[in-house]
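for the writeup, i need someone to sanity check this before i put it in the appendix. the sequnce is what the collaborator sent (i think, or maybe the updated version? ugh). structure was predicted straight from it, no edits. if anything looks off just tell me and ill rerun, i have time this weekend
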Amino acid sequence: MKKLSWLFVFGIIAFGSLGKPVRSQFLAQGNNGDLVNLQKLTCRELLRSDGEDRSSILLFLHGYMSGKAGETIINAPALAELTDKVIDGCIDNPNQILLKVFEANR
């Protein structure tokens, strides 16, 4: 039941994030709207984002990294621990590329 609860929570977060654009300074105007370049997004930009944007970015990157690794199981405690490591790494190195911090802590 606990696993189902976490899945429900992540589903609500993901569904609630749909259609809400990220409004931070790392956006670049593209042909089809706003684009975020994950190879340039820095820790400083994550830390300066408001709570909703920060949550959306972290949720997306968790999904991106899980998909890249071929993972099909959501381990909420492990994701929370990874989020803490990423935030700590970003506080220590705000100019670091966020994607690299995720990769280093996975």
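Confidence is low (pLDDT under 50) at residues 4-9, 15-25. The CA atoms of residues 17 and 94 lie 25 Å apart.
thx in advance!!
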